[in-house]
Amino acid sequence: MHEAKRAGGGMIKRYSERSEPRHLDRLTLESDLQHALEREELRLFLQPQVDVDTGRLTGAEALLRWEHPTRGLVSPMHFIPLAEEVGLIIPMGRWVLQTVARQLAHWQQQGLPVVPVAVNISARQFLHQELVEDVRSMLEEHGILPGLLELELTESLMAHNPEVAVQILRELKAMGVRLALDDFGTGYSSLAHLKRFPIDTLKVDQSFMRQVTRDEDDAAIVTATIRMAHSLGLNVVAEGVEQESQRQYLAQQQCDYAQGYYFGKPMPLEAFSALLAGQGDG
Ligand code: C2E
Ligand code: CA
Ligand code: CA
Ligand code: CA
């Protein structure tokens, strides 16, 4: 007991000594992040989603990047949790929705074969009282068909207060916006969510895809997920597809859509627009 306490105390001391630079780093990051919006350092990338059988472009996922003046392109994994914690996710999320709506309107005006764009919504943003009205006014302002916007949500975000979640989802659904369940199978998973929540699409998490052609358990999970989703009338998108063998496996299992480096990495808006224009020619 006594020994354990001493060991614990030692660990705390070492940790605080070591974490001092990291702590400072976090504060700098936080103040930098506050300025990122005003200084227009946020970038939106789009990653293609394709039909598993034909490879045809069927949609895109919007992924946020931060072009930091000295650190270069910062991954959302490094700043979304912090933005969520300090509340900056609200204006940032709004910026993402605005940018997507503007891009969709631009494609429509150019007469390009527009595809739906999926936007990631974080917990705090989802539970923020203005989300539904924000989405509605953005679609109206830019004259966007609601079906061209898909919102990606995670189960953990809805698990906290399922009653409220169902209500928000129903309002979004009534508007005609599409809803996807992201990272399916990770974290707090419940089959009851699939029954209760009015979702259209299920995204199979990339952790199951990595070894899908080599690991029987992963293959079983992916196959069962696709079957179950289809019996519930949902579309399935497999994430993290990097190889032809994975695409083939998904095609055999009748997965609908896929996303991953094999088909295209997240790319700047202009590059994705060029891809869309190319589809129009084909
Ligand atoms: P996510 O929603 O699961 O997004 C998929 C992630 O997988 C992206 O990472 C994407 O670049 C990466 N990816 C795509 N294809 C492949 C592949 O074939 N192999 C591998 N290894 N990775 C692949 P990214 O862009 O770094 O985003 C990380 C996470 O940050 C996202 O995970 C999402 O949770 C969050 N995020 C990104 N943009 C936004 C945003 O606008 N709002 C919110 N709230 N969260 C965002
Ligand atoms: Ca996502
Ligand atoms: Ca995901
Ligand atoms: Ca098919």
Bound molecules: ligand C2E, calcium ion
- Find the count of extended strands (DSSP E, 2+ residues): 10
Order of helices and strands: HEEEHHEHHEHHEHEHHEHEEH
What fraction of residues sit in β-strands? Answer: 15-25%
Low-confidence stretches: 1-20
Whole-angstrom Rg: 21 Å
Quickly give the structural class. alpha/beta
**Molecular shape:** globular
How many helices? 12
Mean pLDDT: 89
Largest sheet: 8 strands, mixed, barrel
The residue fraction in helices comes out at 40-55%
Lateral arrangement of strands in the main beta sheet: 1-2-4-5-6-7-8-9
Descriptive overview:
It contains 12 helices and 10 strands. It has helices spanning 2-38, 76-86, 89-110, 123-127, 131-142, 155-159, 162-175, 191-196, 206-209, 216-231, 244-252, 269-281, and strands spanning 42-51, 57-68, 72-74, 117-120, 149-154, 178-184, 201-204, 235-238, 257-258, 267-268. Bound molecules: ligand C2E and calcium ion (3 copies). One calcium ion binds at residues 52-53, 254, 256. Residues 26-280 form the EAL domain.
In short:
The chain is of the alpha/beta class and 282 residues long. It has helices spanning 2-38, 76-86, 89-110, 123-127, 131-142, 155-159, 162-175, 191-196, 206-209, 216-231, 244-252, 269-281, and strands at 42-51, 57-68, 72-74, 117-120, 149-154, 178-184, 201-204, 235-238, 257-258, 267-268. α3 runs parallel beside α5 (131-142).
Key phrases:
12 helices; binds calcium ion; disordered N terminus; 10 strands; globular; binds ligand C2E; 282 residues; eight-stranded mixed beta barrel; alpha/beta; cyclic-guanylate-specific phosphodiesterase; single chain
